[in-house]
Amino acid sequence: MTTSVAQVLGTQEDPALAAYRSGRYDEAVKAFQQKIGSGQDVPHDHRHLFRALFEVGRYMEAEKVARGFINEHPESPDLHNSLGEVLWTRGHLDEAETAFQEASNRRADDWLTAELNLGIAAFERGRRTEAMQRFDRFIDFYNNGEATTSGDLTAVGIACQYLGISDSAMYQDALKAFDEAVAADPNDLRPRILTGNLFLEKYDSGNAATELGTVLQLNPYHPQALLSMGRRMRFDGDENAIAMAESALEINPNLVGARVYLSRQLLSAERFDDAIEEIKPALETNPV
Length: 288
Description:
This protein is mostly helical. The chain has three domains: about 15-70, Serine Threonine Protein Phosphatase 5, Tetratricopeptide repeat, CATH 1.25.40; about 95-190, Serine Threonine Protein Phosphatase 5, Tetratricopeptide repeat; about 190-288, Alpha Horseshoe (Serine Threonine Protein Phosphatase 5, Tetratricopeptide repeat), CATH 1.25.40.10. Helices cover about 75% and strands about 0% of the residues. The chain is built from 17 helices and no strands. It has helices at about 5-10, 15-20, 25-35, 40-55, 60-70, 80-90, 95-105, 110-125, 130-145, 150-165, 170-185, 190-200, 205-220, 225-235, 240-250, 255-270, 270-285. α5 packs antiparallel against α6 (about 80-90) and α7 (about 95-105) runs antiparallel to α8 (about 110-125). The longest helix is centred in the middle third of the chain and has 16 residues, at about 130-145. It is globular. The chain starts with a helix and ends with a helix.
């Protein structure tokens, strides 16, 4: 991926969005709240406010934003998928699936992401046949030209990763979809992080470092990127890997993946009591 940091930053004109994308989360939250209060660009600003809160683990506030928008705009399909994502993160699985289905049925802008989330929900809850059927539909979504945005293409890539469990050739399709997602919106960091994670999963630490390093140039405080970089450093035997993963929790203390990762490292070191203490906040965030 050849898009430079300077090129990406050069496209950022909205100060609130620029603050969010560079990891100035408190500033971004305040700016989006002010914009919403003035009635500007209601769906987009609510969605960005939700994402800023969600990214730093302020899940109850994020849920309130999503529910508030849905209640005030019952005719709009927006933020149903967002509501589902925060409900899923907090362990309210049935409610989350209902919200995902609502977003899909009403063809929200992110309906393909909602479709993906329904597949992930089925997979995680043991309905594997249903899940794989859902993921397989993403090949048609892509071939029919229904995946047009960065979010859509990212959803296609994730679906291909799941299909790769039984067909390893699908991993190349996942990388292609993530690459197209970055091309569609160079400011969207999620497909870059997912690309880095996929490289690491395939034991390609060098390319993983390149992708994750680019993300952290753009946003040095992105919790998922910090966690992924910590995992990459651990793979290479870097003694600073744990500190890198811990830095993700400084931004988002409720990041369950970071708690699980650090707890496993403590278990490996036979620090059993510390491992239990590390995992407790994760269970408070998501008890299931």
